[in-house]
Amino acid sequence: MPPFDFSQVSNCAMICSAEIRLTTRPLRAQHHAKADNDHSWDATLAQPQRKNLIMKQIRRLTFIGMSFLALLTAVPSIKAETEDDLIAKFSSPDEGKVLSAMTHYKKLYRDSTKAFPVLKSLLTDSRQKVRERAAGMLGAMHADVNEQDVKAICALLKEPNVGANQEGLKSLRGLQGPAVAGAVPDILPCLKNSNSYVVRDACRTLAVLGNKDVIPLIEPLLNSPESKVKKDAQDAIAALRSKS
Fold it and tell me: What is the pLDDT of residues 174-186, one digit of tens each?
């Protein structure tokens, strides 16, 4: 059963509120007319008509109230998903559920390290989107990784997919541990990628992981016709030169 959307209850409540206002408007109008003109209802509305109007409004309000109660009764017992619940969903065969759980986990438990072992195991998952998301999360959460993890993430740089290349580069510059510097040889070919976004991300990642030895390999980009590529190359070179 999909998660219940509480906005439906909110919408229903607003509709019921509007209906009640519309329903009681004739009665309120009669009341105000009585107060303003000091006339009884009988003076403006025949007794049978008044009775029929009241009964009609009662039936309408009863229907609205019962509908609202039925909606509330239909709400399943909902338990807030815990960290363990979300981590368990990472192993689902349903890619959509895995990606959704990852998104929620990143928002709710960004400072936790509990999911790192599972995320690292997903770096070699058969589903590319899952591999990308796992790498992205590990980078965003500054996970400490080993050589095997770095190798798995660097595999994204070789994918014929710009999104995968960028996700891998962004992940690498957020990771922790001495093994991350070993990714530099895999990053260098990205400087010659045909996509400028990949080239720019490569410059940014080398600025974090590289040393002065890679400056000559970045310098040709200072002549790039694309101003943004040139700017990222300049920034990377400046950052590398400032390193001891």
Answer: 999 999 999 999 9
Is 1 part of a structural domain of the chain? no
Burial of 101 (0-12, 13-18, 19+ CB in 10 A): buried
Residues in contact with 210: Cβ distance below 8 Å, sequence separation at least 6, in sequence order: 184, 187, 236, 240
- b/e string for 198-209 if b means 16 or more Cβ within 10 A? bbbbbbbbbbeb
Q: Which residues of the chain have pLDDT under 70?
A: 1-51, 68-80
> What's the number of domains the chain is made of?
2
Q: Same structural domain for residues 159 and 200?
A: yes
| CATH number (domain holding residue 194) | 1.25.10.10
> What integer pLDDT is reported at residue 9 of this predicted model?
46
- On whether residue 19 sits in a domain, the answer given is yes
Distances (CA, A) of 161 to 5, 166, 169, 195: 35, 9, 13, 10
* Residue 67 within any structural domain of the chain: yes
Predicted TM-score of the model (pTM)? 0.68
Please give the DSSP secondary-structure letter assigned to residue 30: H
Q: What is the span of the domain harbouring residue 210?
A: 83-241
DSSP string covering 125-148:
-S-HHHHHHHHHHHHHTT-B--HH
Query: Considering only CA atoms, which of 170, 95, 162 is closest in space to residue 127?
Result: 95
Question: Do the domain assignments include residue 78?
Answer: no
What ranges make up the beta strands (E) of 6-52? none
| CA–CA distance, 122 with 103 (Å, rounded to integer) | 15
